[in-house]
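ugh ok fine here u go
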Amino acid sequence: MNWMIPIDVEAEWLPLQWCTSNPMPEGYWVPSQECVEYVMDIDPYCIETAWDFICLNLYEECLSDTEGCLDETACNYNPEAGGGNASCAYPGDLCSVATDCLNPGVWSAFCECETTLLDTDGDGICDGEEVFGCTHPEALNYDPSATEDDGSCEYPPAPVEGCTDDQATNFDPEATVDDGSCVYPPAPVEGCMDDQAINFDPEATVDDGSCQYPPPDDNTTEGNTTGNVTTNGTDNGQQGNNPSSNGTTNQTQNTNTTNEVEMQTCQGCCGETFEISITEVCPVVDCQACEETEATSSNAETVRTVMVLIVAVLVVGLVLTRRPPPDVDDVHSPDEDGF
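structure:
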């Protein structure tokens, strides 16, 4: 921005700042900027109220004491300069040297030192101040201080959708994003799992010990095997049916199927039998004398009658042969069983 002062000092106009890219207002001209600022520093009236004759005189005194460019071809030509051409600047000439960020500067037609930024990629940062690195925030090695991407960015692997719950039946250990597809096993169903029970539950998956079974049926004998061994003996040379020893051994094996328990038949007293588990031993039964049956009594009577007849015949025979009769007491009478 350059200062402009009014041509007519009697108009009492204020100095103005002028942008060289805009047309110059009428009634103003561009003086020596150094001298205008000098006047404003000495007399604030000249900038606050009006540029009058006093301000103009101070300005001319400054020019006489200041060297300036008197070359009309220079962009900073000042016909009112005190003298000397050492300060002349010409459009296109270098006005500054190059730096890491700036190209060499040149004078413009308005005597402004113009330079350009060394910015190859046009990002507003000069090439000498670029920081190379990864500039992508989503990268694993993102560098927030980097201004120039050097292609070194590293990215995480692409997400793998699937079931990430290890309790599910379709758990995917390689999944990184749960997609809601998890499938879980059905809840356990407690109940009786024994199909032989009356409360068997075919849908039960966990046996809870509640099985109930029907009461046992009457024993069913699938097979019986009985062996009887009887030994009779007579002592003292007696001929008759008085047994001195009588032993009976009965062995019975039953196979009963009732709730899978096998039974056996044991011999009791007087021809009776009873059943116990096959895992037990048949006990020895202490029996009392058995009562005679009608058949046994009839047989005994028949034997007695026969014996009486035999004795009678012998007596008659002896009488006829005049032999003494035999002693009836020596003849053994049959026992009550007829033997």
